[in-house]
Amino acid sequence: MGRGKLRIYLGAAPGVGKTYAMLSEAHRRVERGTDCVVALVEHHGRARTEVMLRGLEQVPRREVEYRGAVFTELDLDAVLARRPRVALVDELAHTNVPGLRNAKRWQDVEELLAAGIDVVSTVNIQHLESLGDVVESITGVRQQETVPDEVVRRADQIELVDMSPQALRRRMAHGNIYQPDKVDAALSNYFRPGNLTALRELALLWVADRADEYLQQYRSEHRVSKIWGSRERIVVGLTGGPEGRTLIRRAARLAEKGAGGEVLAVYIARSDGLTSASPKELAVQRTLVEDLGGTFHHVLGEDIPAALLDFARGVNATQIVLGSSRRKTWQYVFGPGVGATVARESGSDLDVHIVTHEEVAKGRGLPVARGARLGRSRSVWGWFVGLGGPVLLTLLLNTVHLGLANDVLFYLALTVAAALLGGLYPALASAAVGSLLLNWFFTPPVNRITIADPRNILALAIFVGVALSVASVVDVAARRTHQAARLRAESEILSFLAGDVLRGETSLETLLERVRETFAMESAALLEREGDLAPWTCAGRAGSGPPVDRPEDADVDMPVGDHMALALTGRVLPAEDRRVLAAFAAQAAVVLDRRRLREEADRASALAEGNRIRTALLAAVSHDLRTPLAGIKAAVTSLRSDDVAWSEEDQAELLEGIEEGADRLDHLVGNLLDMSRLQTGTVTPLIREIDVDEVAPMALGGVPEGSAELDIPETLPMVAVDAGLLERAMANLVENAVKYSPDGRTVLVAASALADRVEVRVVDRGPGVPDEAKDRIFEPFQRYGDAPRGAGVGLGLAVARGFAEAMGGTLNAEDTPGGGLTMVLTLRAVGSSGSSGETVPTHPLATAERQAAR
């Protein structure tokens, strides 16, 4: 059985109707006779959604016990055993309760798809991993539950469930999304019109980009060359001249007028030398394009108008922006110019804008030679002059008799003109035809091939020699001009390439895309293998052409060493272009090696950090943990001794020492376990809404009575945190503050609201910490100053910061006015944040964490 198909209902925010639409689709499929079951659907108490579950078969959920509470999750094994044709799985980005086979629900979905089961699921736009920074800038909160973009992009069908911000807020006000007691807070925070509008725009743009990918793939597979104006794509033709900045800004304004407009600036390096671009000016224009949200492309093309039109049609552009010609009036004798040619050949599917600028008609250098063959038009004129010119000249000279010497000079001038226009071969043809006509019509005896006067033979020989010499000089000059211009174009491309690679800004995929664009190929891939007999594998690929499994299957292959090759598909590349391709291939190998070295360095750094942590753990076990154990053992041994009769006071003192040693040992082990969880990334907070004053009193349980006081206002907003992690972090902060506070000075634990955050401050009057050491005290196994070994292993503050960041908060140290240190713990306030406006069901994690920590 093949892989199942995935259909996703994508929404911009909670409550737009994703689950309702999914259930409606399920009813339609059941009516058509499809075997469809509900694997897991969260209706969140919404009556209309709950009604839609009626009439659908539901697979019982799996109950999972975690830290004393029972949760229900997707029963993956039960769904696989049932093997329906279609399974409904809600909330694709959900994090499973620890202990299940997969950490994320999308991983469960992957197993269902691999088993051949079609899946219908839902996800909000803010849960896409790549949009985390954007969503955080809009809502002020970093999303905790995310799904990789590639998982959603691989879906066979994505359907946008859209709703205007005003309609969504009305649904919220009517109680159709949240409970009535949460409506006001949601409307004034997360569900603000600005937030909803921005999230809706994100969803629409993401789906539009996805549709554009489908369109490009379809056009490539079906070889569609005609432009489809599905969205405005504006190509800006740059020459490297100063007018380029004006053209770029004009194109950006055109793109802003249409939704989703895109600007693509292209500079075509032509091999006939018809460019005089300044690399500095091109770099400035490239930066300007990227700042305006466009992209810059560097393409190699023989014919600039044709290359520009090919590029525009290849990217499905709808408009081309060009500048008015900088040529002077007399320079138009060389041709109509790029702008006029592009406008004439663009057809009805491309709009061409000719933009005026300050450099119009100020002149630009035009070379005489235009290539190895001097261009098609000049070659035609050269052959016309070389073959037709002598015939016309013969007719003219037969009517006007000027003498043989003058006739020879006229034919020689005609041969020189043919050489200047068409090069070597038209000149040779002109010399041959001219010499025959001279011999037949003007050299005695006339109308015969023979020559009576030997001096005439010398004249004809000199005529042919001069003609050949001039033609050879013109041809060599044209070839040298062509070679110099091509080398210049290649050097420009290579300088751009070297600059990007040396700056380390180019990824392998970007470099391959540059190769594909430069040589106008369908695809480019970097293949490698471990040995001569090993199979080839693809290290990176760009383009939409057919995949290449071996370099021999490609249209062009460029070896890079013994076991690597750059393979291109699309057309056969001229031999003269392989020199530049070889440089690209070498740079691709360098980029691949650098990426792997960076990955190795990251792994080595992680291993080194792990070794440091393990070494510190061993040191802690060898001393800090053995010290309380030794004290407990000594006290127990003394109590069990029959040689000494202990008084009740002595026994109480020994028992107190045992209790203190056990508490200290338990505290050290708790910190070590917490640090281990943070280092391995296994801390999975379960967020719920709580009041800070519910947790703060429990955090003071580990310090002597009267050593700390609370100042928590009752009007403080609720926070979205994991209660157990918050209590553990606050307990460590309070214990650290009490440890360094002078005798008789209490530690203050205060809280206040600031914008969309709640700040918890733990204030002590101890010696304080210098600014340069404030970050270092949060590192594992760090003690400030001359703290004795018995003061702990230096993990308390590191654990507190790790737990704070795991909940989406921060922990920093500040100076206390008047002396001392203040720890500032910043938490998310409910309503203004939250990963999606939905909370995880309450569970007794706080109790479990306290039991594990105490």
UniProtKB/TrEMBL annotation:
Keywords recorded for this protein, A-Z: ATP-binding, Kinase, Membrane, Nucleotide-binding, Phosphoprotein, Transferase, Transmembrane, Transmembrane helix, Two-component regulatory system
Region Disordered, residue ranges: 832-854
Gene3D superfamilies: 1.10.287.130, Backbone structure of the membrane domain of e. Coli histidine kinase receptor kdpd, Histidine kinase-like ATPase, C-terminal domain, HUPs, P-loop containing nucleotide triphosphate hydrolases
Enzyme class: transferase
Protein name: histidine kinase
Residue spans crossing the bilayer: 380-397, 409-437, 457-478
Residue intervals of the Histidine kinase domain: 620-831
Catalytic activity annotation: ATP + protein L-histidine = ADP + protein N-phospho-L-histidine
Organism lineage: Bacteria, Bacillati, Actinomycetota, Actinomycetes, Kitasatosporales
Record localization: Cell membrane; Membrane
Membrane association type: Multi-pass membrane protein
EC number: 2.7.13.3
Any one GO MF annotation of this record: kinase activity
Pfam family, one: Usp
